[in-house]
């Protein structure tokens, strides 16, 4: 059961602002401001206006933690306050599973430049470099920080599967609750990798959009004119709680994670097979595990990255797994508004799916004005749609060939 | 500028992306598509970055296709190089 | 923590093992070296360690990727991925498992990572900062990232089932195997799992030195002395092990020939915040793993220790083992004294070693320890292998930050 939500996202810190942005259909993509990106092909990103002091972090925390960890801690605190579970759960039966695609890339990039004298020295200089380098090296440090906040002494770790991390980690955390290993899991994903090395990586494979002259409309999922994804950053952390545990303490239950699955395409580290078979298989398996039929779906929160390849692949996967229901189910990509924050994005998408269930509103696909004729499903263009959502599917697809799907259902279903 | 031919292209492919042990790049490969030659889009991206840097040119996304052939790519490269010169 | 379904009958079986290690590439070469007490620890040769506080490590010497891998894979992989691909090929061959001959989605892979491909990453960041973004390889986007070994193994061998990657610093090698066990429960009957890691480049070395746990002793035979009065930290190494885990019925069905053992219990716990004065989570993890295996402490025949080499952590581990098994209640060993600590690869190598020990009923030795510090608490097997009847082994792995992972395997 999801009993708490915390979000750091482009366009707003906190769940309330996040949901306002999404339902208003506003975009948060802009020209990169975190460093001078003028030499790069893609100079657009969805950045968080994050003030660590205003978000309650201490000077020591700001100095020691990478931005990714800072986001995660702020979102975790919001989720814990929202759920009211802090101090209530048994530490031995409380755990943390956090996802990330890029870990502490921003700090590593910066620190590398310092110790190598901007790439001049292979033999990097031991006299310089942060005392926290090892925490940046192994991203398990982020899981440890979250564990200390909630006093988790049960299972703690990082699941990292590139751009599907946010679904895979929540699925794993839900498994740990379902099989009785833990009563409470703090789980979600965080990425803040808007940094020269990241931008250079995606430039090199032309995955990010070069639409630098109009950053606000740079991310155009399912649109004929889409030409790459807009890099993003952010975090969503959820509190997952065993049903009886939540009910006994009278917690508000937002939704249930009722099924998830992941498959590999065994095809390419970055490419997708056109037929969408593996993603379709993940969707079918997740629905089976959730005991949900394709016709039960009220909404699909899409991967919709705005690359030529992905949006077609995904559309094929929906048709393959859902049949005629693919045409009847509203589908939207919030990456149109908050960009693609790599591992974190699908936890933000799960948070949005949970909020869609809570509020009965489907966020739109912004910037979708010229539908791609090959993407011929209902992508909820431009304007949010009020509609009861009891059963929501969220999917992701990423580097390494990972294809993942997760099903969220309204709490009444679980009670029934 | 000396023209950029198949020999130069094969050298860059080998250096930046390796080669499939079952395929003879010394043979007549001008009209065989890159996929059949054992190269995926990543290999082409890496190869083309080398060429772009060395020749000071920029190729369009459309020029980079695994279903394209070395002949078509060389035409694009030499056309771009002629314009840049 | 927990007890889910894994009782004896349906516990996943290990049907194949592959090892790449500083003291041997290949299971039998490694095992022979371990039983001979032959160490792979020496002075770092791949880069100049002048100017760094330590210069001792466990390198895999004489590994030429071109001899082992297709040329298409070499430019796109970090050293740790090349080593992992070699280990995966060995492991599948040992298990006689060809994923392409099995139904779609029947085989998955879970690997453990620590930092991703550091050496590749250093080279690309050097290109970026010294020459510019246009010089960054198109392979950098994934060669550096944590699940790269999972992805490359999956692609090379056509494994399309449920797959993942985990990071719990040095506890990851066991956590990956445990997660693979969950994937088996959820319907992917054949899994490849474990960790193979390396960060032996100047940038990785500098980062690792900031853990404060590297030994600064310059003598390769004296630098890493777990449970010794002269313990001074550890030395890093590279390599690891992968295992094929299968649902026992599925293994039977496809006619798998080998059974190294069964993974019967696992638990992960986390330590309370440092300085809190509360007991570390290790003892609980050991007890929960025993519970899940449905065995008592008295059933365990050998313990493969985490063997930190940091005196405080060694003491914690010795105390936890004595609390569960009784003082000197079970033979304890640390063959990683011959390889160094292999980041995300070490724990799965210990697991593989434990299975080999069960197979041959011999406990491999801990080397170089001349002055055991906790002789009253643990019976450390020193210098020579010890032959004895072995049915159950328990493997301990701990990760920087407070991660504890414990696994029980049965012959």
TrEMBL record, chain A:
Transferase listed as a keyword: yes
Lineage start: Bacteria, Bacillati, Actinomycetota, Actinomycetes, Kitasatosporales
GO biological process terms on file: fatty acid elongation
Gene Ontology CC terms: cytosol
Keyword Acyltransferase: yes
Keywords of this entry: Acyltransferase, Transferase
Protein name (Swiss-Prot/TrEMBL): Beta-ACP synthase
Stated family: Belongs to the thiolase-like superfamily. Beta-ketoacyl-ACP synthases family.
A Pfam family recorded for this sequence: Ketoacyl-synt_C
InterPro entries: Beta-ketoacyl_synthase (IPR000794), Ketoacyl_synth_AS (IPR018201), Ketoacyl_synth_C (IPR014031), Ketoacyl_synth_N (IPR014030), PKS_Beta-ketoAc_synthase_dom (IPR020841), Thiolase-like (IPR016039)
GO MF annotation: an example: 3-oxoacyl-[acyl-carrier-protein] synthase activity
Domain (Ketosynthase family 3 (KS3)): residue spans on this chain: 1-410
Gene: fabF
TrEMBL record, chain B:
InterPro entries registered for this protein in UniProt: ACP-like_sf, PP-bd_ACP
Domain Carrier: 1-81
One Pfam family linked to the record: PP-binding
Membrane-spanning residues: none
Name the UniProt record assigns to this protein: Actinorhodin polyketide synthase acyl carrier protein
Organism: Streptomyces longispororuber
Source lineage: Bacteria, Bacillati, Actinomycetota, Actinomycetes, Kitasatosporales
From TrEMBL, chain C:
Domain Ketosynthase family 3 (KS3): 9-411
GO molecular function: 3-oxoacyl-[acyl-carrier-protein] synthase activity
CDD domains in the cross-refs: CLF (cd00832)
Gene3D superfamilies (alphabetical): 3.40.47.10
Highest taxon in the source lineage: Bacteria
GO biological process, alphabetically ordered: fatty acid biosynthetic process
InterPro entries: Beta-ketoacyl_synthase, Ketoacyl_synth_C, Ketoacyl_synth_N, PKS_Beta-ketoAc_synthase_dom, Thiolase-like
Protein keywords: Acyltransferase, Transferase
Similarity section: Belongs to the thiolase-like superfamily. Beta-ketoacyl-ACP synthases family.
Protein name: Actinorhodin polyketide putative beta-ketoacyl synthase 2
Organism: Streptomyces longispororuber
């Amino acid at each position: 059961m999801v009993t708490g939500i915390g979000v750091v996202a482009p366009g707003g810190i906190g769940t309330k602002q996040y949901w306002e942005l999404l339902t208003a259909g506003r975009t948060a993509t802009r020209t990169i401001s975190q460093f001078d990106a003028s030499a790069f092909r893609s100079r657009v990103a969805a950045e968080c206006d994050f003030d660590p002091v205003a978000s309650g972090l201490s000077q020591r925390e700001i100095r020691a933690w990478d931005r990714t960890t800072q986001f995660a801690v702020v979102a975790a605190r919001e989720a814990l306050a929202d759920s009211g579970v802090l101090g209530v759960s048994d530490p031995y039966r409380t755990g943390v599973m956090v996802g990330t695609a890029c870990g502490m890339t921003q700090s590593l990039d910066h620190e590398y430049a310092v110790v190598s004298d901007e790439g001049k020295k292979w033999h990097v200089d031991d006299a310089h470099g942060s005392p926290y380098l090892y925490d940046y090296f192994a991203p398990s440090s982020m899981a440890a920080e979250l564990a200390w906040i909630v006093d988790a002494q049960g299972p703690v770790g990082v699941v990292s599967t590139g751009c599907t991390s946010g679904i895979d980690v929540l699925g794993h955390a839900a498994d740990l609750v379902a099989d009785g290993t833990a009563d409470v899991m703090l789980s979600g994903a965080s990425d803040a990798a808007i940094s020269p090395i990241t931008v250079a990586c995606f430039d090199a494979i032309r995955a990010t959009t070069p639409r630098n002259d109009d950053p606000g409309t740079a991310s155009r999922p399912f649109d004929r004119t889409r030409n790459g994804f807009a890099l993003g950053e952010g975090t969503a952390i959820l509190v997952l709680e065993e049903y009886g545990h939540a009910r006994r303490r009278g917690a508000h239950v937002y939704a249930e994670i009722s099924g998830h699955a992941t498959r590999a395409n065994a095809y390419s580290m970055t490419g997708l097979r056109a037929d969408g078979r593996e993603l379709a298989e993940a969707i079918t398996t997740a629905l089976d595990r959730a005991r949900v039929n394709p016709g039960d779906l009220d909404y699909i929160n899409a991967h919709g990255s705005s690359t030529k390849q992905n949006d077609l692949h995904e559309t094929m996967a929906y048709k393959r797994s859902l049949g005629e229901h693919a045409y009847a189910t509203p589908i939207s990509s919030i990456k149109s508004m908050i960009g693609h924050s790599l591992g974190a994005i699908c936890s933000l998408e799960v948070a949005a799916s949970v909020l869609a269930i809570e509020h009965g509103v489907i966020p739109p696909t912004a910037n979708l004005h010229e539908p791609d004729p090959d993407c011929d499903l209902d992508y909820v263009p431009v304007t949010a749609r009020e509609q009861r959502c009891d059963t929501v599917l969220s999917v992701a697809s990423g580097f390494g060939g990972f294809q993942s799907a997760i099903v969220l259902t309204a709490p009444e279903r679980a009670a029934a | 500028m000396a023209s950029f031919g198949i020999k130069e292209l094969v050298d860059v492919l080998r250096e930046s992306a390796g080669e499939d042990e079952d395929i003879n790049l010394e043979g007549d490969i001008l009209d065989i598509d890159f996929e059949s030659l054992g190269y995926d889009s990543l290999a082409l991206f890496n190869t083309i970055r080398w060429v772009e840097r060395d020749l000071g040119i920029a190729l369009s996304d459309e020029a980079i296709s695994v279903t394209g052939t070395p002949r078509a790519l060389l035409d694009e490269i030499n056309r771009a190089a002629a314009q840049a010169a | 923590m927990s007890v889910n379904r894994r009782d004896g009958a349906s516990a996943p079986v290990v049907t194949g093992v592959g090892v790449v290690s500083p003291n041997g590439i290949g299971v039998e070469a490694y095992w022979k070296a371990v039983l001979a007490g032959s160490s792979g620890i020496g002075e770092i040769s791949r880069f100049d360690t002048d100017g760094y506080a330590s210069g001792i490590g466990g390198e895999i010497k004489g590994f030429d990727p071109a001899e082992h891998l297709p040329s298409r894979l070499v430019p796109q992989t970090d050293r740790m991925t090349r080593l992992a691909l070699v280990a995966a090929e060995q492991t599948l061959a040992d298990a006689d498992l060809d994923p392409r001959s099995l139904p779609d989605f029947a085989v998955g892979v879970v690997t453990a990572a620590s930092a991703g491909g550091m050496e590749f990453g250093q080279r690309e960041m050097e290109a970026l900062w010294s020459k510019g973004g246009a010089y960054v390889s198109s392979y950098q986007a994934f060669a550096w990232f944590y699940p790269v070994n999972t992805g490359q193994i999956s692609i090379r061998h056509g494994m399309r089932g449920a797959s993942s990657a985990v990071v719990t610093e040095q506890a990851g090698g066991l956590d990956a195997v445990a997660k693979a066990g969950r994937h088996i429960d959820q319907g992917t009957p054949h899994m490849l799992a474990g960790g193979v890691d390396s960060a032996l480049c100047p940038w990785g070395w500098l980062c690792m030195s900031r853990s404060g746990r590297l030994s600064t002793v310059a003598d390769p035979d004296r630098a890493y002395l777990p449970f010794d009065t002269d313990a001074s930290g550890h030395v890093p190494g590279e390599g690891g092990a992968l295992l094929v885990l299968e649902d026992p019925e599925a293994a039977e069905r496809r006619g798998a020939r080998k059974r190294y053992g069964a993974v019967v219990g696992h638990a992960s716990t986390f330590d309370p915040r440092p300085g809190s004065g509360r007991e570390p989570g290790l003892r609980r993890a050991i007890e929960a793993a025993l519970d899940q295996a449905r065995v008592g402490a008295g059933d365990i025949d050998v313990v493969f220790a985490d063997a930190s080499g940091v005196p405080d952590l060694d003491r914690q581990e010795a105390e936890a083992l004595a609390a569960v098994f009784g003082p000197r209640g079970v033979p304890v060993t640390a063959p990683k004294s011959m390889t160094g600590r292999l980041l995300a690869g070490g724990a799965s190598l210990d697991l593989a070693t434990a299975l080999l020990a069960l197979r041959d009923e011999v406990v491999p030795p801990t080397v170089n320890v001349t002055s055991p510090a906790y002789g009253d608490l643990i019976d450390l097997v020193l210098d020579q292998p010890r032959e004895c009847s072995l049915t159950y082994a328990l493997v301990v792995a701990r990760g920087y930050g407070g991660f504890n992972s414990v696994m029980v395997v049965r012959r």
